[in-house]
Amino acid sequence: MRALVRHNDPSPSRLRYRFERLWLKSSVRQTFRLWLPLGVTSMLIWVISSDPAVRQTAQMKWTEIFEIAAARPEFQVETVEFPDVSDDLQQQIVTVTGLTLPVSSMVLEVAEMKRLVETLDAVETAQVRVLGGGVLQITTVERTPVLVWRDAEALRLIDAEGNRVADIARRSARRDLPLIVGLGGDKYVPEALALLDVLDPIVEHFRGFVRVGERRWDVVLDRDQTILLPEYGAVMALRRVMALHMTEDLLNRDIAVVDMRNGARPVLRLTGEAIAELRRLRAEIRGEHE
Fold first, then answer.
1. Is it true that domain 147-277 has CATH number 3.40.50.410?
2. Fewest C-beta atoms under 10 Å: which of 102, 191, 225, 289?
3. What pLDDT, on the 0 to 100 scale, is given for residue 1?
4. Calpha distance 251→203 (Å, rounded)
């Protein structure tokens, strides 16, 4: 009698078949290969880090490693360069940043240093970079003063946009710059510069601008002459005065004040000597007629 031989069925089981079908999907493979290990690792880290003692130990170790790395010679900044920066401004930069050398480039806050340097009145923009060889380079674009502004407190140098550049102790320190006086004068620097352009033919007689009531300008010339300008259209009014001067030699006459506040009716005021002379002539004329 022939013995019965049992043959193994080569076909996969139903469970294995379903698993192999699922494994063909890329999302399933990615879940098992990436997201599942990542989730388990994250959970372990969270469980470990929830222990205050573990956190403190880890922080101490990290601080120790960071300090060792920061102290390495290749990270040390030994010198600072100030290309095209004046000596006075260099000292201001060192003071405002509190810079002390040597310092590790790993603890040097370049962005914060740039912000601090740009808070200085004389600095328009700044750039701070750590170069090779342990060199810190600080470059600046300095504001250029164009006027001296005298307010109630001090004499200040201001740029073309009215930004403060520096204080000066005496007017004689910057005789090369025009003077403006009065509260709010720094807010109207472009208009003052435009008026100064109009005065170019007689600039040697110019003494300064006075801001009156934070509304309008007076132009002060030598010989105690003053031109009163209107609140609006000051440049045009001054051009009219200059046109009269060029044609009639107006400002070389015995005139103390040229009042242009009312554009429809300019007013001229004579000097004291001219008024006295006029009265004398009138008296002589009356005497001759009597």
1. no
2. 289
3. 45
4. 12
